[in-house]
Amino acid sequence: MLKIKNLHASIDGKKILKGINLEVNAGEVHAIMGPNGSGKSTLASVIAGKEDFEVTQGSVEMNGEDLDDTSPEERAHKGIFLSFQYPIEIPGVSVTNFMKTAINESRKAKGMEDMPANVMLKLIREKAELLDIDRKFLSRSLNQGFSGGEKKRNEIFQMAMLEPKLAILDETDSGLDIDALRIVANGVNKLRSDDKATIVITHYQRLLEYIVPDFVHVIHDGKIVKSGGKELALELEDKGYDWLKQEAAI
Amino acid sequence: MAFENDVDVEHSIHDVRMAAMKNFETKGFPSKKEEGWKYTSLNSLQKVDFSIFPKEENALEYKDVKKYFLHEIDTYKIVFIDGIYSSYLSETTHDGVDICLMSSALTKPMYKQVIDVYFNKIASKDDSLTSLNTAFSREGAYIYIPKNKMPKKPIEIVHFATGNEASLMLQPRNLIVVEENAELQVIERHQSLTANEVLTNSVTEIFAAKSAIVDYYKIQNDNATANLIDNTYIDQKDRSLVKIHSFCFGGKLTRNNLNFYQNGEHIDSTMKGVTILGDKQHVDHHTLVHHKQPNCESHQDYKGIYGENSTGVFNGKIIVDKIAQKTDAFQQNNNILISDRATINSKPQLEIFADDVKCSHGCTIGQLDEDALFYLQTRGIPEKEARALLMYAFANNVLASVRIPELKTRINKLIAKKLGVNLGFDI
Fold first, then answer.
1. Cβ pair B143, B155 in contact under 8 A
2. What is the tens place of the pLDDT at every residue in A211-246?
3. Which end of chain B is more exposed for a tag (fewer CB within 10 A), N or C?
4. What residue range is the signal peptide (chain A) (predicted)?
5. Spatial separation of the C-alpha atoms in residues A138 and A119, rounded to whole Å
């Protein structure tokens, strides 16, 4: 589904990604771990199409199609979803209206009619229940005054509504207490299927107890320095990142 | 004065007019040399040969101008065509409240007492354009709401310019008196129906007695050859609440002079504005709040979106007298420039003579938040719509306080249209 080849990216002339290779197939869950500043979030932003980053080498392909020069919204229409580490507050636009706009713009891009209002409302209700979201929450301004946990839950709610092929969860566990973490992980797990893939970006192993990955990759200094199965996450939890940094330095 | 021959004017009004005329003759039109007119030039307007009174009476069919009314709901209407009252398009009342005409209020004995107490009492005697209006005005809305009363429905004051004159100058004059514990909702609109140039120099005096509530909405969406100078003076007494919303989406040149005088305690004065301009449009929002007594509040929140070659001015003056302790004055002016050629001049002017007050002001001029734009795009919303949605959201909190739902829907649609998008929903 997603093929990243020798990806180099920089921002304001500063090199952040220095040759990432990654292949994610349908049905798989990949975890990307690594210390702060290693390039995890940059990788997520580059896949989602953020223009601040310049891809200097290599490529990102989605279902065989090179995404170079593809806008963030076109990537979304192709099924890529990014759950933000720091979701943006947008006062004046309610969660419901935001979702209506997002869904209908995606449908428009695919040549489909607007979703009928009753179908939309039913869908919103179902997905809100899945994530234990109160109805009152849906009429509030997007992310404005939301707690950290509410913001993250709202991200996964949007994901549930948009049903992406590839979901990238950037530090979805940060700022969550254990109950919120369970709800969010449960939501993600319910949305897993054989034709979808997930990339979980996290600093800690904690989230991976709930969203169990098929593969774990460790990024350090803009490169994947180690890949393995889910046991690699446990090893990292045990030993920290220092041994990998030393290993990479050799 | 010559035109007074066709209306029977009281001697006292005649004197007021003569004094005003004298002031205007001395001062003339304000020039850019004056601090308050630094960014707004009336030079080009002075070259136009405006006719002050139309040669003939003009009529309009309701179906042709229906869209300019808030026709979704029932309203009282005070309608003028080229400055002359149209009884055909109006719906006035004397049922417990007076919602009628300035010309009859100025001439009929039954209104004399109110006119003597209120007419030209809060309007500036010094401001040349206000004087010009005082000298020449003979028509406008007269609204008197007695103690504890509230009209059954909102009042629309609409001025149409038919374009039958090559260029027309209008001098509407409104007097609104809201007595103790009474309440009022007004929607005011100036609409030119052709490309012929119009200059409207309007003066409105509003008196809000103890605990009165006034909700006033100015819809300024006139066409590209219409100019409006709006001079509004508000006198507030104890515990009164006056809110003025200015929605400025059209016109060639618009100057809003809002002047609040707080003559009592526990008063709340609120000014909100949404400005969305393009082309070569120009708007100048000049506000004044004079806190003259303790324990009062004022709130100002103006949002502006300026595109193409449009220019904007916000000048917010707050005066807090020495006696006006515990004043809480808030002023905010946020602007987004969506073109390299658009300009905004934003200037807070605080003159505070009391020591125990809370005064805050903030002004921002910027572009749209790129991170927010990216966030919306990752959800599949195309860049153009995402930009519009953000601008919409930016202006939206000003709409939250619009208390007539149908008006709010209308304004929402106007904003969406102005931003060139169909968002598919009303916020």
1. yes
2. 999 999 999 999 999 999 999 988 888 888 887 777
3. N
4. none
5. 16
Residue A202 identity (one-letter amino acid): T
CB pairs under 8 A between A and B: 86
Distance from CA of B400 to the nearest CA of A (A): 9
pLDDT tens digits for range B72-124:
999 999 999 999 999 999 999 999 999 999 999 988 989 999 999 999 999 99
- Residue A131's Cβ-side half-sphere holds a number of Cα atoms within 13 Å equal to 30
Classify A22 as helix, strand or coil. strand
Does A2-249 carry CATH code 3.40.50.300? yes
ipTM of the complex, rounded to two decimals: 0.95
Q: Which chain A residues touch B412 with a CB distance below 8 Å?
A: none
pLDDT > 70: percent of chain A: 99
Are the Cβ atoms of B381 and A73 closer than 8 angstroms? yes
- A74 → chain B, closest CA residue: B380
